[in-house]
Amino acid sequence: MPAGLSVTLDVPTATFDPRVHMWFARYKKGEPVVVGVRLANNGDRVIELSPLLLPQAMWLSFEVNGPDGREVRFLGPRSKIKVPKGSIRLEPGCFWGSTFNLAELFDLRKPGTYSVRAAYRPTGPGPSGGFAIIFTEEARISIESRS
Amino acid sequence: MSALPILVWVLMFGPVPAYPAPHLLPPPHRVPGLELDVSVEKPRRPLIVGEPVVVGVRLTNNNLRTVELVARDGSENHWVTFEVTDQARRRVEPIVPEAKMRVTYEEIRILSGYFWGRTYDLSKNFKFQNAGRYTVVAFYTPSSSPNASAIATAPVEIEILEKR
Questions:
Q1: Domain span holding position B107
Q2: 8 Å CB contact of A99 and B113
């Protein structure tokens, strides 16, 4: 990966359990499940990144597994995108990213605990160029039925 | 104000959550004219006395159009200052008065739905000598702000624990 680049899955409502080294968050069924994907330059050189961060499209993908452990289907939207020209210049100490409502992107209607992590591919559709895919920490998202 | 909308909400979605709920990000404050929300990201975990106190100042574009931050008056004129208070609500005096966004390129384009920001190690600016809870507010002054007035973020609380 580009030296100094870190990718974080930011679940604003989550609490960290140091015993299992994992984030936990609870939502009621139907509530937005908003997470952020945050790319930070912790190195000492500028990192150039694609200016687009769309889910399940070239650079970014979420891995969501349901209460039964199976992969949860991506609902979309799937959009045909052009590889954008230009890049984001992320200076040392800076971060950049976007937020996503996972409840719109994935079928999270079944109550239970879902595991979520994001994977970032620095080179997108191009050859890896020796850069590995960067995975975020896993978060556990509990969907509770409304009573 | 009529209680009817609240009643309808409670019937449809359950009890209205008390705000601010624990662990929620504080409500971001808006930069007039720039259509950006400014907030402070606190460390993801409690810190230990002596550790770096790294916070992020985040500019979020919650609008439908792209926002450009142009360094009109020089590339380093995006200013950030911080105010830190301890748990007795006493102001912690800064060692270094101000920080900068240190934008060295001409412009930053923040697309709709995206955010951009910079991290700061506040332990370089303030002495966090004792364990306890500290409250941090950032004041952001964009160079393109016509009146150059600073925007204060919502306060965030940082917990610093004793060394074991």
A1: 26-161
A2: yes
Neighbours of A26 (CB within 10 A): 14
On chain A, the residues whose CB falls within 8 A of the CB of B23 are 12-15
Query: Does residue B155 sit within a domain?
Result: yes
In A, which residues are within 8 Å of B24 by CB distance?
A: 12-13
The tokens of B77 are what?
């004129």
What is the domain-level CATH number for residue B126? 2.60.40.10
Bridge partner list, B68: B109
Determine whether the interchain pair B115/A36 forms a contact, defined as Cβ–Cβ distance below 8 Å. Answer: yes
Q: How many domains does chain B have?
A: 1
Residues B118, B134 contacting (CB under 8 angstroms)? no
Give the gap in angstroms from C-alpha A43 to the nearest C-alpha of chain B. 12
Rounded Cα gap, residues B164 and B161, in angstroms: 9
The answer to whether position B145 is within a domain reads yes
State mean pLDDT over A14-25: 82
The reply to whether B105 touches chain A by the CB within 8 Å rule is yes
d(CA A97, CA B27): 18
Rounded to 5°, angle at Cα A37 from B157 and A62: 135
> What rounded mean pLDDT belongs to chain B?
73
Q: Kindly list the residues from chain B whose CB atom is less than 8 angstroms away from the CB atom of residue A28.
A: 13-14
pLDDT per position as a tens digit, A40-75: 999 999 888 888 888 887 789 999 999 999 999 999
C-beta atoms of B116 and A95 within 8 A: yes
ipTM, two decimals, is: 0.84
Assign domain A5-144 to a CATH class.
mainly beta
Closest CA to B25 of A95, A14, A26: A14
Specify burial of residue A73 (Cβ count, 10 A radius: 0-12, 13-18, 19+).
exposed
Domain limits, chain A? 5-144
Decide: helix, strand or coil at residue A102. helix
Closest CA to A77 of A63, A56, A92: A56
What average pLDDT score do residues A23-50 get?
91
